Amino acid sequence: MSRIGIVGTGYIAKGILFALGRTDDLEVTRVFTHSSPESRTDFPKRTLLTNSIEELVDASDLVVVASGDPVRATEPVEAAIDASLPVVTMDAELQVTVGTHFCRRGYFTEAEGDQPGCLAALREEALAMGFTPLVYGNLKGFLNHRPTLEEMRYWSGIQGISLDKTTAFTDGTKVQIEQALVANGLDAAIVQDGLLGPTAEDVASGGAALARIADERHQPISDYLLGVPGAPAGVFLTGRHEEEMQPYLRYYKMGDGPYYTLLRNYHLCHLEVAKTVRRAIEERPPLLNNGRSPTVQVVGVAKRDLAEGEVLRHPIGSFDVRGVAIRTADHPEHVPIGLLDGARLTRPVPSDGTITLDDVELVESRAVEIWRTIR
């Protein structure tokens, strides 16, 4: 029986607790939280809660992270890596902010379940079948860069997900972070800042359109399709295959080529995490992480005119900024959106302006220290 520690107590962390608790080989032994364990009447197993990083590490053989807060998650993750524990994340926010540091130092991988991990697993299947990947694609049904507080409160209540997470899903921050991680981890590129996100009649035609762009660039790309009618809550990969395989693929109802789309029509988040946990325990190669030499980051873009002296709160899923994926080589003064919580603006930033290092005073943290060593 492997002992599993969890970092985080939100919607996904609770789901992971439930899912791992129903396995015969994995036992959740501690759950790390910054909140008071005594006050967490909403948490199903309060006796597992701890505020002690040392206790989390001592009680665990592997740590799963589902925090969504890269600053607060950094210290427990660093302690786990220092103790030579494998770390499995369902936390693309942490990965794109400081993940490069951790993957250089130990076993650090994103899990299947969320879109990046599912794309990495789909890539493994595609390569095993001889496909050459060209597009690593996400599917997004709806996008509103400036949702209102009233709208987000309504949908947060309907979905049972926190207000900030609901907002990050709606304004596109989440898909930008996910596809930045995919680009960095799978040696792909983004075509432009903010991604392309085209619409299409179906996933296959949209994938083929993106594949043509990838062919022109001679490099796989990471992107998404928006509002495809009837598209599932999944991911897709579009690629090529050898010419002699085209008659077979035509017979298999994959189309005439030269581009073929593999669609994974679900991602089941917490239910899939155990697969990656077992992968780590078996010491198989990490599924996906931010890579040792990332080229893409996610920055904050103002949703409104921001005044000098304003302090940004919970930027991932806020009503002040949204996340946009950028090519870091084109933005030497970039600062990750994941480090903007509590940052004070030192000068005004107009609506749709990108927040740079010259615009803010960051709150010092271990995450900020680490990012400065890898930027």
Average pLDDT score: 96
Helix content: 25-40%
Strand content: 15-25%
| Count of runs of 4 or more consecutive helical residues | 12
- Tell me how many strands there are: 14
Roughly how many Å apart are the termini? 39 Å
Write down the domain tally. Answer: 3
Which stretches are poorly predicted, pLDDT < 50 over at least 5 residues?
A: none
Element-by-element helix/strand order: EHEEHEHEHEHEHHHHEEHEHEEEEH
Rounded to an integer in angstroms, the radius of gyration calculated over CA atoms is 20 Å
Strand order of the largest sheet: 3-2-1-4-5-6
Q: Describe the largest sheet.
A: 6 strands, parallel
Overall shape: globular
Structural class based on helices, strands and sheet pairing:
alpha/beta
